[in-house]
Amino acid sequence: MDHNKFLEYVQAENKVEPKDMMPEDYRKLLVRQISQHAHSEVVGMLPEANWITRAPSLRRKMALLAKIQDEAGHGLYLYAATETLNDGTVNADRDSAYSDMLAGKAKYSSIFNYPTLSWADIGAIGWLVDGAAIMNQVMLMGNSYGPYARAMVRICKEESFHQRQGYEILMTLCRGTKQQKEMAQQALNRFWWPALMMFGPNDDASPNSQKSMNYRVKRESNDSLRQRFVDVTVPQAEFLGLKIPDENLKWNEERGHYDFGDLPWDEFMEGLKGNGPANKKRLQTKINAQKENAWVKEAAVAYAEKFKNVTT
Ligand code: ACO
Asked: What is the ipTM for the molecules in this complex?
């Protein structure tokens, strides 16, 4: 396939569909990113699932359960979108992609390697983590690969409910007792920097960005999305009466944006190497779940086999 023609095609805002011709590195870039994104959705269920049995009321428990189920659904759309890229040259089928994640060969978002220590962390995850995810995923609604772009539309709608339920948890805590407000502040202190790191390394240290932008997968850079996130989130923190844990955070009149401090990139790199606070626990939980629930898959396959020739 003519590479320049393909670039012209995607840069003119046309969509690529599964059976279309595409350069191998475009296919590989998509399999890498979409499968990592799928892994993030399913690993992301774990820190929140930690609080299902301890949610403070039935209403909170129902909302949390619904949100976690949404994340499972997002994982399924994204594994399905990854599979549409399977042409035998890449590991795009669901089992291979998932096994790569369990073996520690494929990444998932760094944010899910942090523990959830209090109920306020569930609020902070909805507000900050889902808030950051939306910022990135609204951009991805316009990406050049049709199945990925379409999956993003529904995912973004659901993520915006997640963001609101998180913010509302924190609003309730911030209007509660002194201890509840302090719990909210501690959660913000824990999740602020990890949430900013979700957008990935700085632009000058992001090896995939240029190609991804040329192929119209990424539409905005890591730093520009991070800046937008800071700009919209600071006033939300002020409304809650919480303090962002960054002494260098300051409105810059000239730039029309907030300036903020350096991110703890060493911590990010350690997480990527598998040494974050909860990396090992997350992977072990998923490995155990796969073993313990293997019988469900086997039963479903046996059932399908048994009735394959039966017509109704
Ligand atoms: N956590 C873990 N790994 C990360 C993160 C992160 N927050 N940010 C970047 N990386 C990895 C990249 O995957 C890449 O590694 P690889 O080359 O081995 O795949 C490396 O760091 C360098 O980063 P970039 O060159 O900037 O990578 P890329 O262009 O793919 O940009 C980004 C990273 C922005 C995360 C992009 O992949 C993306 O938009 N992904 C889809 C959205 C997504 O996965 N969101 C996860 C959270 S969604 C949720 O809340 C469930």
From this structure: 0.98
